[in-house]
Amino acid sequence: ETCAVNNGGCDSKCHDAAAGVHCSCPMGFMLQPDRKTCKDIDECRLNNGGCDHICRNTVGSFECSCKKGYKLLINERNCQDIDECSFDRTCDHLCINTPGSFQCLCNKGYTLYGLTHCGDIDECSINRGGCRFGCINTPGSYQCTCPAGCKLHWNKKDCTGSVPPRATLTCNKTGKKDSCALTCASKARFLPESDSSYTVSCGTPVLRQGAQQRPSNSSHQCLETVAAPIKQKASFKIKDAKCHLHPRAKGKQDEAGKVGAQGAPAPCSDCQVAFVNLKCDSSKKGKGRRARNSSSKEVMRITLEFEAEIKLEEITASCNLNCLRQRVERKLKSAIKALKKSINQERFLLRFAGMEYEVARKLSVGLERQESCGPGQQRLAGRCVSCSQGTYYHGQTEQCVPCPAGTYQEKEGQLSCDLCPRGDAFGPVGATNITGCMGQCPPGQHSADGFRPCQPCPRGSYQPEGGRALCFPCGGGLSTRHDGALSFQDCDTKVQCSPGHYYNTSVHRCIRCAVGTYQPDFRQNYCVACPGNTTTDFDGSTSVTQCKNRQCGGELGEYTGYIESPNYPGNYPANVECTWNINPPPKRKILIVVPEIFLPSEDECGDVLVMRKNSSPSSITTYETCQTYERPIAFTARSRKLWIHFKTSEANSARGFQIPYVTYDEDYEQLVEDIVRDGRLYASENHQEILKDKKLIKAFFDVLAHPQNYFKYTEKHKEMLPRSFIKLLRSKVSSFLRPYK
After folding, report:
1. What percent of the chain lies above the pLDDT cut of 90?
2. Which of 313, 342, 353, 485 has its CB surrounded by the most CB atoms within 10 Å?
3. What SS3 class is residue 497?
4. Shared-domain flag, residues 407 and 453
């Protein structure tokens, strides 16, 4: 036998040897017992070929690939979780990476739609937000309103005529000295704005009537009506002083008490001040160029806004509402005069939680050592930290102290805690909101102030929330089987409505939820509005997942950009039409990568994506599809500009697409064409995954759009791309550059 005849019978390589021919096989093949034939080795049989996830045997070799949500590392064996949260635009609000996937979460007051997007919940559409009278939706929240002459209850949902805690303004005169103090029993708010300015408010402003309310059809009377408040604003300037809220020295604290006892009461010690807002601001004033000393003077301005109430029961035959208003106005004005004097004499105090605070500090008094933090803060691990919710700043100890029983504090960095509506000292210490106040009525019960003793909701009414002052009627003459019903589902309706419907109490029928609303539960009397700017394709929707954004997505830049089907990555809506135009700068061409596209598998081609030179059907077409392709494809546009059109039918829906593009210098056209038309770019699953990898595509496009950025990636690319891919690119680039060597 010799290799010269029929290759010595060998399948592959043949060597002439002393003992006859010697056959050998290339890498990846094994010589069979007949010593002639070569058989492919299935590397995947042994230890999965060393692959982490999936091993695919190929002729003479094998290929590792990863499960969805993982990427192959450059050793082409191991898989690593893709951190989707590191991509741009993955989630609207909060993104949590999980092995092989990710999860989007929304901030409070927002709900998820289209898998990754967050839309504002319209709480007013959910049983009118539980509001007694009117409801105004706001981004991430909502607000209940009351009719003129009523105030919002502490539960922020009911309306009441009773007045919340007031601010008390007392002024005393001793000889020529005026002393004024503003005492805040509850609802005090402290907001430091900078080192030299802050705002303090006390009490509750009378709620203005808001627009776009959804008033209830129930007629509403308050227990007592409230006349419009009297508002006054005053501003004072003090020279050589700086805004600095600080607790008064201990010795002076006692003295203030004595002064209060002796002095004759000044006017307006009994003013019904419902709300006070005090703003203190410091600014430097230079005296022009001729100022001898360079140190400019500090000027401090205090602005006070008052809202005083008028008690209608004080109207008498001799003094009507108008006369009463004038009387309160006069009192307020004289109080403001006394205030001005006391502020100028530095005898104006604020009282919170039994502590007295001075509003400013004269510059002549050397500032004390600045070791202590400002009011509302304490030192922790060498840093100043605001007092947390459920605590307040104690002026004497300069520490944050938990709110005592019977009080609560929702905000951080405050100087006192708010009183529970009942004012009795029960409940936990350190309560962070009003629900910490003990004795609230449970759901299904009510009382005038929302606290015990409570009555169960009478038959024909229900109350799903605790601490309420009333129960909602079932309406339409419907009753409930027992007292203390918790929801509309307890009302004896004539028919039981399924999800996607609501019960209309006027006609006693189930009505389909209108377009743009949905209802996931049985036996409800309302439909929920879709979040944000989304709507549904049809009426009778049963889930928020049927709410879709109809806006065509994308960002069209001169160098890079992307187009996106509406509501992506959620299913796109029915009956939409989108048009995008890509107009690159002069001497630039367009490269497009379609990582994957999901359109319904229909024969009729109901949903179509087309890319042409312009809107004319006869113009040069670059790409057209009405099918799903999970394999990526890259191509250059056949025209300099691109008109892209996406149209959906009224029945279909699918996930759609997100398609990035880049414009590149036409000098590179030959190179780019050469790369995207090479079958090896798509031959292996790993190369396909590169075209789906958002980070790699971003890096590629960056280099194509701005070649000088190549050097940003030269060090990194070793970790970014598989060797086989680099080999393919290197051969293309070197053959393209060879003429210039």
Report:
1. 45
2. 485
3. coil
4. no
Nearest to 687 by CA among 676, 703, 698: 676
Strand segments (E) across 269-396: 273-285, 297-308, 348-352, 355-362, 377-380, 383-386, 391-394
Residues facing 502 on adjacent strands? 511
The verdict on residue 625 lying in a domain is yes
Pair of tokens at residue 136: 């105004």
- Residue 247 preceded by cis peptide, ω within 30: no
pTM (predicted TM-score): 0.73
Give the torsion through C-alpha atoms of 433, 439, 442, 446, to 10 deg: -110
**CA distances, 156 to each of 153, 193, 454, 570 (Å):** 5, 27, 19, 36
The verdict on 612 and 688 lying in the same domain is: yes
What is d(CA 59, CA 80) in angstroms, rounded to the nearest whole number? Answer: 27
Q: End-to-end distance of the chain based on CA atoms, in angstroms? A: 51
Query: What are the φ/ψ torsions at residue 320 (nearest 5 degrees)?
Result: -85, -170
Whether the pLDDT of residue 207 is over 60: the answer is no
pLDDT tens, residue by residue, 610-655? 999 999 989 999 999 999 999 999 999 999 999 999 999 988 789 9
Do 589 and 610 sit in the same domain of this protein?
Answer: yes
Q: Which residues, in sequence order, are CB contacts of 99 under 8 Å at separation 6+?
A: 69, 81
Confidence category of residue 256, pLDDT binned at 50, 70, 90? very low
3-state secondary structure of 597: strand
What residues contact 455, with CB distance under 8 A and at least 6 apart?
Answer: 445, 446, 447
Q: Smallest Cα–Cα separation from 547: which of 97, 125, 143?
A: 125
Domain of residue 580: give its range.
Answer: 550-737
- Domain containing 383 — which CATH number? 2.10.50
